[in-house]
Design goal:
By secondary structure, this protein is an alpha/beta fold. It folds into two domains: 273 residues, Aldehyde Dehydrogenase, Chain A, domain 1, CATH 3.40.605.10; 188 residues, Aldehyde Dehydrogenase, Chain A, domain 2 (3-Layer(aba) Sandwich). The protein is 39% helix and 20% strand. Strand 12, helix 11 and strand 13 form a beta-alpha-beta unit. It is globular, with a radius of gyration of 23 Å. It starts with 5 loop residues before the first helix and ends with a strand. Bound molecules: nicotinamide-adenine-dinucleotide. Nicotinamide-adenine-dinucleotide (NAD) binds next to helix 9 and helix 10.
Length: 509
Amino acid sequence: MVKADFAAWERKITSGEPFEVPEELRSWLLRWKRLYINGNCCDGISGETFRTFNPATGEELSEICLAKKEDVDRAVVAGKQAFEQGTWARQSSSERAKFLRRLGDMILEHKAPLAILESLDTGKPIKESFEGDIPRAALNCHFFAEYGANQEIPRVFTNETHTHTTFREPVGVVALITPWNLPLYLETWKLAPALVMGNSVVLKPSELTPLTAAYLAELIHELNLPPGVFNLVQGLGEQSTGEHLVSHAGVDAISFTGETGTGRAIMKAASVGPTRVSFELGGKSAAIVFADAPWELLLNESLRAAFRNQGEICLAVPRLYIEESKYELFLEAFVERAKAIRVGDPLDYRTEMGALISEEHWKKVKSYVGKVDVPGKVLCGGDRPAEFAKGNYFSPTVISGIDGTHVITREEVFGPVVAIYPFKDESEAVREANATPYGLSACVWTKDKSRAERVSRDLRTGLVWVNSWLVRDLRVPFGGQKRSGVGREGGDFSLDFYGEWKSVCTSNG
Ligand code: NAD
């Protein structure tokens, strides 16, 4: 674990002056990142490793042990043994909540190194890691420590002859598979409820962003969790670590966040059990903007919804449907603001948009933009900003003149690319907004409350924001309709997924 004056690091990060990665963190990065199995840091059995690269510079960041099938097996078996031994699983949830509270506190104490690592690994602006991702990771732990404590209090149903006592039990060994766009944020979103419910977990982070999970394992080690309750395997997905994990017969539940296509493959693997799954998948959210929308708020939030985290957010809003009478005005104002977004070094606190995750992803985003042809127009962006010779930087991109059949309208680009469309009336807007296979979230912009309510009900998405975006309450069900997900997480929905309801029926006689 890194030891240093983190308060001084925080001052440096937030000063807005360029800063170097501190020496202590550089040496941490140089150390080979190991797996964490059965309470021990260990190498993979094969000795194979993989490397990660800084999206902003292309430089190598770190070398990570690759978990092969045998390592995944060791992790699942360790989880199973810990579960059966019961030191963790049979503790009360309020005892387990104490661990989560301490973990949340520790994440906050280590906010500076974690934020630097997250930005180095993902390319996202440090302001976002420091003020967004890492505090949210701590909040996930604190929230489920409160929400999940005392969850085992039974519900009792009595009639003249019998009493039915129902309560939740942990499921067993849970596989947690996470993507690269919000690494620690999503890892803790799954880890915290899984642990408070008394499960053992095997976490497999994205191979593109393994660093904060490696750091997390070191924090967890300090907190003396019983061996085998938390295991970390690092590696790739298909035909590698991820696939071995979701196909393992010892896994009792799989919580996955990632692409819809990967969800399909995991569903197939899980069908062998069958193993219970919770999927948070891709999105292609739309905003419907009526002429009476609150203008300044609309522009600010739509800009954030389009370009925050380089557009690499499942909940990003890359389709904007604008009522005809305001279309030209909106287009002009939006493009002007998009051009003013400060793209730059992820470690500069003033940066508003960093670099895309990988060169491969950069090429994918570029190829989508290349498919815009007449009458479509790329109004701004569409390429690497001229001032960057290297790094996966991509300018905020605004497109107009394409219709509902265009690939950019239908498919998830997952980058800073937004298309804007005019609409004539409410029913056309709803029809167009619903016309993708995805159904994660949507925004409705209007001051007319009854219209907002009507349109919200007509939209086939798991979440709708009215005159807002990305406002979350962790008690609220989170998840997508259609191809954007299977199941819901958050609050009770997470406790239900990571728990098994049991009913005991006793004769009153
Ligand atoms: P991805 O599906 O490529 O990878 C996600 C994880 O799955 C990685 O850890 C990967 O190694 C693993 N994986 C890949 N193939 C696997 C297989 N066959 N078996 C087991 N594991 C496998 O996704 P990504 O590119 O890392 O992330 C971007 C995607 O995630 C986007 O589609 C985005 O919308 C989605 N996402 C959704 C949400 C949500 O809450 N709905 C949140 C964040 C990201």
